[in-house]
Design brief:
Strand order of the largest sheet: 11-10-9-8-5-4-12
Structural class: alpha+beta
Number of domains: 2
Strand content: 15-25%
Largest sheet: 7 strands, antiparallel
Radius of gyration: 39 Å
Number of strands: 13
Helix content: 25-40%
Length: 341
């Protein structure tokens, strides 16, 4: 039985009820309770009805300087109210951080973050029929591990951070055991323009007579045709007879369009129907995750600032002056009482 979601939901309910109780209590601190009697001494709240002196008969307070309470509400002393608000604010910090930290972090990323970056990568592998193709396996990797912008070592291994578009590596294992590899690089000023050239294999012996012979695809729409023709050039069969270059070009185009977010992360394989008979098995493994770079201002600062400003406003409201005092004019003595004496 999975109780995790229930526990989380229960925690939010408890926090909601506690927040409601705190809000009611804060309203009480602000409003206080009505004075039981008026007029009253502002120091001891003694009822001054019938008092003919300018001093409180209970505590001796000079009523001519302070005035008396004729209306309003009675509240706790200002220092006590301030201490209560500060204690509640400190106790509320951890729950507030737990509930809002993620939201503030994402807001900071969206507002103050740099260009979006990716972590991880993707690998596509296609196994081909050796009876129809010179290559028995085509592998596409993006980004090209040798061209990643930044690599960060962690306890779980190396993580690559990169900003699309990035170079893509195409590797073709031939039936005779040799390898042909190509790097497909974007133009720094135009992400629609790509250069395709042959490179030395990442693994295995180098080919000293290798000619890179780069070609350029001016648009993504030309990519499939340009790269398939470029790979065909290195083959031994007449151009167009081997479906391997077309399968490789289709895989490379799919990877680049995913990188540029022009298609979904798990697209259908874009092979021509005429080339499907040469495909024995195909698999794409996506581990790339898109996110924002670390923002210039951390979300924690906004979380802390919002918490501080909220409670500062509450504190100012709670410690605001309470009931106003009115000038005290002692009640005149009863003339009848003097005549009786």
């Amino acid at each position: 039985m999975n109780t995790g979601p229930d526990i989380v939901a229960g925690g939010y309910v408890v926090m909601g009820l506690v927040s409601l109780a705190v809000a009611v209590f804060l309203v009480f601190l602000v409003r206080g309770r009505p004075h039981r009697v008026t007029p009253a001494c502002p120091r001891c709240r003694y009822c001054l009805t019938g008092t003919t002196s300018t001093t409180c008969p209970e505590c001796g307070h000079d009523l001519t300087t302070s005035g008396v309470y004729l209306n309003g509400r009675r509240r706790w002393p200002r220092l006590i109210r301030a201490v209560i608000v500060i204690v509640i604010a400190i106790l509320s910090f951890l729950p507030y951080r737990y509930v809002t930290q993620s939201s503030w972090r994402y807001w900071a990323m969206d507002t103050f973050g740099g260009p979006q970056s990716w972590t991880g990568g993707a690998t596509g592998i296609v196994k081909l029929d050796p009876q129809q193709c010179q290559a028995v396996e085509v592998t596409i990797i993006y980004p090209d591990p040798e061209h990643a912008d930044l690599r960060s070592a962690t306890s779980n291994g190396d993580i690559y951070y990169w900003n699309p578009p990035e170079p893509v590596r195409l590797m073709m294992a031939q039936a005779d055991g040799s390898r042909r590899e190509y790097v497909i690089e974007p133009n720094s000023n135009d992400p629609q323009r790509w250069t395709i050239q042959r490179v030395q294999p990442m693994f295995g012996p180098s080919d000293q007579a290798l000619s890179t012979d780069p070609v350029i695809a001016e648009r993504l729409e030309d990519f499939y045709r340009v790269i398939s023709e470029r790979i065909d050039r290195d083959g031994t069969t007449p151009p167009g007879d081997d479906p391997g270059p077309r399968v490789a070009a289709a895989m490379a185009e799919m990877m680049i369009r995913v990188m540029l977010a022009e298609t979904s992360a798990y697209p259908t394989y874009p092979f021509n129907d005429s080339d499907m008979s040469a495909v024995i098995h195909s698999d794409v493994n996506f581990t790339a995750k898109k996110g924002a770079t670390i923002p210039h201002v951390q979300g924690n600062w906004f979380m802390l600032a919002s918490w501080f400003l909220f409670w500062l406003i509450v504190l100012l409201i709670v410690i605001a002056p309470g009931s106003p005092t009115d000038p005290w004019e002692p009640e005149p003595a009863d003339p009848g009482a003097n005549s009786k004496t």
